[in-house]
Specification:
Layout: H1 2-24, H2 30-37, H3 41-56, H4 59-83, E1 91-99, E2 106-111, E3 114-121, E4 127-136, E5 143-147, E6 152-156, E7 174-179, E8 185-189, E9 193-200, E10 205-210, E11 214-221, E12 227-233, E13 236-242, E14 249-254, E15 257-262, E16 265-268, E17 273-276, E18 286-292, E19 295-301
Parallel strand pairs: 2-6, 2-8, 3-7, 3-9, 8-10, 9-11, 10-12, 11-13, 12-18, 13-19, 14-18, 15-19
Antiparallel strand pairs: 1-4, 4-7, 5-6, 14-17, 15-16
């Protein structure tokens, strides 16, 4: 086994050198090299096969059989990469928009993991929404649908070889959603994102639920009508909420928060934190903010 391990590094150098040489002389195209990278699980097959051979055959035989098997597997991978079917690389783009048909309220449900998700109000004309997504070539675009009976817009992963689980490519997924301001909205985001940005100051928000986790969340909200429930679950490194000046609010934090800042005044500590504005109890229009799960920092701004 020690001898086999000592051969792995020089053999890896030889294999890399051969691949670079084949690319330089034009035998392997750039697409072929990218296709070859997709075959990285073969490394696990080679290592696992060598371990099996080492424990079932004498050392010398295991080394010889392992080397032959490795050469055959690598050669087969190179042949596939060079002669396999053309594969799309890079990023693809998809859009969706549907007209509003007599709805008095709408719901947005997003269960799609992306690097960035941007929810905003925009000029959607007579449409209820407009969604645009960039996603890795070779993946299925997300499923985007509207249930006219309930007014629910659903954006979800459309599956693939591993269902909704993706090993690579999340940094290439970018989702932008423009919502009509003609109806009030309930928003539920569960897919997770590295960066989630919401610019919905012109939107009548009925409720907001974010449960997929995100590195950073920045939400600019409009004036509440009634009690607007805002719930965060799943954790976030940095959570910033912007509310109109004079907004009344209640904040209940559980699950661990490193620090809370409200209009520049900070408080820290782990465990449960409960705070509310002076006029919250008697206010008809207010925000009820519930944070469950780890948040490194929550910043609530209502001063402008």
């Amino acid at each position: 086994m020690i001898r086999t391990r000592s051969l792995l590094f020089p053999l890896a150098l030889i294999a890399v050198g051969i691949l670079v040489l084949l690319a330089n002389v034009g035998v392997l195209s750039s697409q072929a090299l990218q296709r070859l990278v997709d075959l990285w699980p073969l490394l696990l097959v080679i290592i696992g096969l060598q371990l099996v051979l080492t424990h079932t055959l004498p050392r010398s035989q295991a080394t010889v059989v392992g080397l032959i098997a490795m050469v055959l597997i690598v050669a087969a991978g190179v042949v596939y990469a060079a002669m396999g079917p053309a594969t799309s690389f890079g990023t693809q783009h998809a859009e969706s928009a549907q007209r509003m048909t007599g709805l008095s309220a709408a719901t947005l449900e997003v269960n799609y993991g992306a690097s960035t998700i941007d929810v905003r109000t925009g000029n959607v004309g007579e449409n209820l929404y407009r969604a645009a997504v960039d996603y890795p070539a070779g993946e299925n675009p997300p499923s985007i649908s509207l249930d006219n009976s309930t007014g629910t817009v659903r954006i979800s992963d459309n599956g693939g070889p591993l269902g909704g689980f993706h090993v690579f490519g999340s940094e290439q997924r970018h989702l932008t959603i423009d919502l009509s301001t003609s109806v009030p909205w309930s928003i539920r985001l569960t897919g997770g994102a590295s960066k989630l940005q919401m610019s919905v100051a012109d939107l009548q928000l009925q409720s907001l639920t974010i449960s997929g986790g995100a590195s950073s969340i920045d939400a600019r909200l409009g004036a509440p009508k009634g009690t607007v429930g805002i719930t965060f679950e799943g954790g976030a490194s940095n959570l910033v909420l912007h509310a109109p000046s004079g907004s009344q609010w209640n904040v209940a934090l559980t699950g661990g928060v490193s620090s809370l800042t409200v209009d520049g005044q900070s408080s820290g500590g782990f465990g449960e934190i409960n705070k509310q504005s002076a006029g919250y109890a008697g206010a008809a229009n207010r925000f009820d903010i519930q944070v469950r799960g780890g948040v490194s920092h929550l910043d609530l701004e209502t001063s402008g």
